[in-house]
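Tokens for Sulfite oxidase. Go.
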Amino acid sequence: MFNFLASCDFLPAVWSGAKLVDVLELLGIPMFNFLASCDFLPAVWSEAKLVDVLELLGIPKLTSATSSGEKHVEFVSIDKCKKASIPLSQATNPEADVLLAYEMNGLPLNRDHGYPLRVVVPGIIGAHSVKLLDSVNIISEECEVGILFISL
Ligand SMILES: Nc1nc2c(c(=O)[nH]1)N[C@H]1C(S)=C(S)[C@@H](COP(=O)(O)O)O[C@H]1N2
Ligand SMILES: [Mo]
């Protein structure tokens, strides 16, 4: 056991390195301005909630399967390069807050962030948040998260 643990690299690590904040200070970049110019900070979205859109289309809140047995919601990008799916139960759960967003921080989405419309799925890896959204499909089997070609 001792040797096994010693050879693992998924245990908490002790790093040697410089702190980003110190490097920025040395370069004379005040941290506040640096942060203010970043767009990887939490964003404020203008959006429709996917749960409400699905409800308008006849799929009620907290549905885990349709009458014909579909259990997943698939998102496909305009260029067809990107697709991903989430469980229907998540898509129809108001507390899961899955968004169809058209503005970020009060401005229309730029191309990099998915103009004209993108999905935002909180709580799971970004690959599910399909940008440049083209279609939303109700499907039977979970779709493979796919970058079919290099997109953004
Ligand atoms: N159309 C499209 N959507 C996409 C991607 C992509 O390559 N193409 N990348 C995904 C991945 S892997 C991530 S992490 C997020 C990043 O989006 P953001 O940084 O603009 O929020 O977008 C997702 N949506
Ligand atoms: Mo990603």
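The two ends are 45 Å apart (CA to CA).
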